[in-house]
Design goal:
The protein is α/β, with parallel strands linked by helices. It has helices spanning 47-54, 77-81, 89-94, 101-107, 121-133, 149-161, 179-190, 230-233, 236-243; strands at residues 9-18, 21-31, 37-40, 65-68, 84-88, 167-171, 198-203, 215-220, 223-229, 247-252, 255-261.
């Protein structure tokens, strides 16, 4: 078999144990090069563990395999990390350095929390271009600790994008955001659909699935319950099975909304 194929992530027969407990069981999933996925499940379904597996932080149980970016060979983990951006509320809380906005973004060029290297004129310009693309250029000289919670989240999004990653993982990225700020953040994400970067969006809120998402996976109890094209997955009966209660869904303007729960 050729070592090259057409996929971003390919996971086969993979299980993961953490602290002696089975957290993911027999995961089989492939993300194609033109696909943006939403990973949906209740708290404790295994979503964050799956993201850590994709990010290379966890190793599957013997017999399982994870391959990245069309390569069946095993790349050094630092090569993979250069191609994957990561945004989460947890990461935001751990970013303690009070840098200016553009410096936070530039720190992504070095995969560092804080900025310890000199930034070239070209690197600074790249950072500012991403801030401009995301509509947050007004934050370029604002101190990170002086930003609102939502402003800081969008700056960290620019930081994750500054290396032009092939894949961007968004792990519960709207946690802690109020409704207006969340909607602003989701509109910002929609801009990424026109770029080469593909998305994995992790949540348990259906209304956060932006129109640019093409596929949906449901995780339940550490297993894949359903996966497929978004229009097939975002049906009331499928969502109800995944969440364990009767849920009514309605589509409006390319987004899906819960209209009833029993």
């Amino acid at each position: 078999m050729s070592t090259q194929d057409s996929f971003l992530i390919d996971i086969k027969n993979t299980s993961v144990y953490l602290k002696g407990s089975l957290v993911l069981s027999n995961i089989n999933w492939t993300q194609g090069p033109d696909e943006n996925w939403a990973i949906i499940g209740n708290n404790g379904a295994g979503k964050t563990t799956l993201m850590k597996l994709i990010f290379g932080e966890l190793i599957p149980l013997y017999g399982g395999t994870v391959h990245w970016f069309g390569n069946r060979a095993r790349d050094p983990i630092w090569n993979l990390r250069e191609k994957i951006g990561y945004v989460s509320a947890e990461f935001q809380e751990s970013y303690e350095h009070n840098l200016r906005g553009w410096e936070v973004v530039a720190s992504g060029l070095f995969s560092s929390i804080g900025l310890y290297q000199s930034v070239s004129t070209t690197q600074k310009q790249t950072s500012l271009e991403w801030m401009n693309f995301l509509g947050i250029e007004y934050l370029k000289d604002k101190g990170y600790h002086q930003m609102s919670y939502g402003e800081a989240r969008r700056v960290l999004l620019a930081r994750a994008l500054v290396n032009n990653p092939s894949l961007l993982i968004l792990d519960e990225p709207c946690n802690g955001l109020d409704i207006p700020t969340k909607e602003m953040f989701l509109r910002t994400l929609e801009k990424l659909v026109s770029t080469p970067t593909r998305l994995i969006y992790v949540s348990h809120h259906i209304e956060e699935i932006i129109p640019g998402i093409s596929h949906v996976m449901y995780l339940k109890g550490g297993q894949i319950l359903e996966q497929g094209i978004k229009s097939d997955m975002l049906q009331s009966e499928v969502l109800s099975r995944a969440m364990g209660c009767r849920i009514d869904l309605k589509e409006n303007g390319g987004r899906y909304w819960v209209t009833g729960v029993d």
